[in-house]
Specification:
The structure is a homodimer.
Chain A (H helix, E strand, L loop, with lengths): L2 E6 L7 H16 L3 E6 L5 H12 L5 H25 L4 E4 L6 E3 L8 E4 L2 H8 L3 E5 L2 E3 L5 E3 L4 H13 L3 E6 L20 E3 H11 L5 H10 L3 E5 L7 E4 L12 E5 L3 E9 L4 H11 L7 E3 L6 E8 L4 H14 L5 E4 L2 E7 L9 H11 L6 E5 L2 E7 L3 H11 L7
Parallel strand pairs in A: 1-2, 1-9, 2-6, 3-6, 9-11, 10-12
Antiparallel strand pairs in A: 4-5, 7-8, 11-12, 13-18, 14-16, 14-17, 15-16, 18-20, 19-20
Chain lengths: 406, 406
């Protein structure tokens, strides 16, 4: 009798019929002998509708009230699913995040889970119930409701799996697994039957549609296997777990791409100790996630500093960086948003020869210009023009023979 | 600086525009120097929509899940109103019933408030905020969400007024006060500027549209003045308070009517001690509210027992009473639903002569047959055919010169 934590996303519980279909899936699993804790998102467009209502009130809703408002969406789904299960004779119980013992910090809108007391969940499981938990939310020590931000319900599910020592966490969504590339731009992309946590994190820029990084990171830390599959069919999905990739013959697992890239270049930066900290510390304090950083070789004690941020943070980043540029007497500060990233992802790539060279040659032969290159343990990334992304992904997918990778 | 508890009903917060209009009303009051705690209902049709969703899941939703589901409606309104206030520069804070310190028993669907810890509300008021409380709900000792049933938000408002020792409780709704009769069937009905608690309770069968009995009873017990008015205009409303009616020259305050009447008659009941208890105790245990009870004079040690219940409880009542009838070897048990009550309401009526006689004569002259008569300290009630209700109300309103009563 394995204990499984399942999570059903917004489209999987999009309307009354879908919720009943999810109830049927749960009952089939229970009959198979498993015990289930089920985390649910808000129904389909509910969250967007609540945000629109808030927008009618004010341009800048306070995060505390926004969280209290948005938390209702997941509670609604949880109660409806519990009702559908009980209607079919399956004991079930809906719990809000607070009732499920999920304690968070007070950073509204993107709270972190600080503690999880599973006593109530365990008690209800022991009593034979399927426990339905409203995802995306928790209770602070001050009795405030806080939400976990993007991918919050995934995080709730993984955290419950960790806390309950569940056998695995199953994420059901409208995407049926993890592919070797985004199937929308690379039709030959094949579904992976398994993938390691780190590679999943690298693939997740488009994979965020599948599952949010934060939840994968949590699963990686505690070694919880995560199975991603569709709630709309019974096709096998992808198992994300540890210790997979190293044993794979083909070291390249997939091609990731990310169009949410803005590049900032500070020209003529005086090349002296501490100058990088002087620039990047204020960005960090301003909540800006800086990605790739490249510093050119210094010419006459002046260098050009280039880095990337997400497009949504470009304006904020420029507002911080421009005064600093003037202060340190640097030259022009420039921004552009026409670039995108294409990455080769796979553990063990750096230990195998020729991956980088083959990547650059493939892009060259496809007449795609490389603006910037960075690498990590399990990734080689090229910045290219965003209009070239589909051609680049397709060419790389073919060059590394990923169509049969799964 | 008076402390006032206001309550805005579902139509008063029916959409985004209405919520903003309520925010404007609140700000005007704050500028006038008052401190406000504001209780809100769910927006317009929200509760009905949630009930419809539940009905798609199951015919018999469990009360616990239903309460958790329905409680979200009031939370949504409270957050939106707080946002609208803050947008206009008015500090405000939305609290769920649980956060506002409202503790209830665990009778889902019609929970009673057991305790109210106003510490958080007081703290936020002292910090200068308008405190918005989601009505209709509270937290049980087991951390469950329970709702207060019909009129629940009124009860929340009065309970907060009691707990906070507020100067008064203001109920804003789509009805602009308490009238001498239901204006829908008696166009001459006039609005009362004030009325006593007990008379309000007697008038409340149609007055339930204005405010629920339970909240009035709570206000009466603690002597909290309740002001009922419209949120759609600035017309003066009705103040419900103690010690009013006795001093009024015209002892009749209004004409109440109630069409939610079903009559049950048990024929040939053996007239022996304890027989009434034998019949009515099981009804009470079954949650049936028995209203008027009439026992005819005994003939040959057999009597007829007649009583009324609300129509919604008729089937339940018959299911309980029929086996008892057989058990005590009574005759036929009959039910009919064509009757209605018309009542003359006013404190001091019983001490003044001729009210009953004038009532019966008025109905006689209007050719309306009286099926049953009951009286209380402040009420004379006749059961009549329901088709005669409009004529009876109009005739009595005229006979007791209520058009100018206010």
């Amino acid at each position: 009798m394995a204990l499984i934590v399942q999570k059903y996303g917004g489209t999987s519980v999009g309307d009354a019929e879908r919720i009943k279909a999810v109830a049927d899936r749960i009952i089939a699993r229970i009959k198979g002998g498993d015990r289930l804790v089920v985390v649910v998102s808000a129904m389909g467009q509910t969250t967007d509708e609540l945000i629109a209502l808030a927008a009618e009130m004010t341009d800048e809703p306070e995060a505390r009230e926004m969280d209290l408002l948005l938390s209702t969406g997941e509670i609604v789904t949880s109660t409806l699913l519990a009702m559908a299960l009980k209607h079919s004779g399956q004991p079930a119980l809906a719990l809000s995040g607070a009732q499920a013992g999920i304690g968070t910090d007070q950073v509204y809108g993107r709270a972190r889970i600080l503690k999880l007391d599973p006593a109530r969940v365990v008690r209800e499981l022991d009593a034979g119930a399927v426990v339905i938990v409203a995802g995306f939310q928790g209770l602070t020590e001050e009795m405030e409701i806080a939400t976990l931000g993007r991918g919050g319900s995934d995080t709730t599910a993984v955290a419950l799996a960790v806390s309950l020592k569940a056998e695995r966490c199953e994420i059901y969504t409208d995407v049926d697994g993890v592919y070797t590339a985004d199937p929308r731009i690379c039709p030959e992309a094949s579904k992976l039957s398994e993938i390691g946590y780190e590679e999943m994190l690298e693939l997740s820029t488009w994979g965020a549609r599948v599952m949010h990084n934060r939840a994968i990171e949590l699963a990686a830390v505690y070694g919880v296997p995560v199975y991603v599959s569709s709630s709309f069919n019974d096709e096998p999905g992808t198992l994300i777990h540890g210790g997979v990739a190293m044993e794979k013959a083909n070291k390249v697992m997939g091609i990731a791409h990310d169009e949410d890239v803005a590049r900032i270049t500070v020209r003529g930066v005086p090349d002296r100790p501490g100058i990088a900290a002087h620039i990047f510390e204020p960005l960090g304090e301003g909540g800006i996630s800086v990605d790739t950083i490249v510093q050119n070789a210094s010419v006459e004690r002046l260098t050009d500093l280039t880095f990337t941020v997400s497009r949504s943070q470009l304006d904020e980043a420029m507002a911080i960086i421009k005064p600093i540029g003037e202060e340190i007497k640097a030259g022009e500060v420039m921004a552009d948003t026409h670039l995108a990233k294409v990455s080769l992802v796979g553990a063990g790539m750096t230990s195998g020869p020729g991956y980088a060279g083959r990547m650059f040659r493939t892009l060259f032969e496809a007449k795609i210009n490389i603006e910037l290159i960075t690498t990590s343990e399990i990734r080689i990334t090229c910045l290219i023009d965003e209009k070239d992304v589909p051609a680049a992904v397709k060419a790389l997918h073919r060059a590394f023979e990923l169509a049969d990778a799964a």
